[in-house]
Amino acid sequence: MSRMSLRMGALGLIAQYPGSSGYDLLKTFNDSLANVWPATQSQLYGELNKLTTDGLIEVSTIGPRGRKEYRITDDGRQQLQTWLVSADPEPVRNPFLLRVFLLSEVSRAEAREVLAAATQATKAQLAHLDEIATSVEWDDSDRELFARIALEYGRHALAGVIDWSGWAEREI
Amino acid sequence: MSRMSLRMGALGLIAQYPGSSGYDLLKTFNDSLANVWPATQSQLYGELNKLTTDGLIEVSTIGPRGRKEYRITDDGRQQLQTWLVSADPEPVRNPFLLRVFLLSEVSRAEAREVLAAATQATKAQLAHLDEIATSVEWDDSDRELFARIALEYGRHALAGVIDWSGWAEREI
DNA sequence: TTCCGCATGTAATGGGTTACATGATTAG
DNA sequence: CTAATCATGTAACCCATTACATGCGGAA
Predict the structure, then answer these.
(1) Protein residue closest via CA to C1' of C14
(2) How large is the average pLDDT for residues B55-79?
(3) What's the rounded Cα separation, in Å, for the pair B86 and B24?
């Protein structure tokens, strides 16, 4: 289930950036986690309150405009670490693959177009990741090491998909 | 959004297997779509009723035990085809990547273990797809062509991920 | 006649998106 | 003073999962 992921995403970011507010965290989600686990404002504020109620985080300071700065608690760190190392693989839903699976319902020509468009889109995504990889100034913190590793995941997986789409276009 | 996907999955399967009941479709979801778009019984029956109300499918026969056999309508086929060719890429959530991203919160040793476990799991998944690829007797219908292409997607993408995980294990 | 499989449905709960709503602070 | 940004929250709706609930039909 993806149950827990947003919760753990928020908890993890608070661990990495103590003193962040909901507002700050939302930006972090949109900046560094946009391609991994997007979150909406509404969802995030709700989750922060739940995390507080459950004692996994706490408000360290109240700033201007009711700004609540959070930090992780011992209990929270414990639960985060447990979640991180106990990986239970979750079922993945891929809307694009569902399309591919049903492509026999349109003409070959249209199917080819869909595949070609997908190839282009995938290449664009890869180019985007490449750009991030070169533009970001990586320091040698652990945090950035794993951010880079996560980025590389995308590059390798996308390369596999591009490989596939070339093959598939020839096949039909 | 994944809004629409279950709906279109059900519609597409009815297009491919006219005369199916909800019960039949559930088996098809679990058999051929398990790795692409899993569906629960509850969800499927609800969606079938909505599709009927909206005129995209219709009941062709009522069989024993209240069995309702469905077929797609002209309007339904139209909407299915439109959906198939108008690909709007959807944001992907990857719970595993979220973990990777946050792995700096545990020790290097533990992080390595998580990566190693993931490598093993990915290899197992790939072996599973390989087994399907060799065990299934593919005919030369369009339907099976695209099923095979969808399967190959998985194999290529997983190969990319295995590539990555080897690299990542060395990196940390 | 009894059990298994066929067959459909509802209710409760949680996660996620969009839209709405409100107000404080600061920079210009 | 005024506009942009900071900052938090609520409500309505949809999608998905789990569990519950019910009953018919056919095979042994």
Answers:
(1) A3
(2) 98
(3) 28
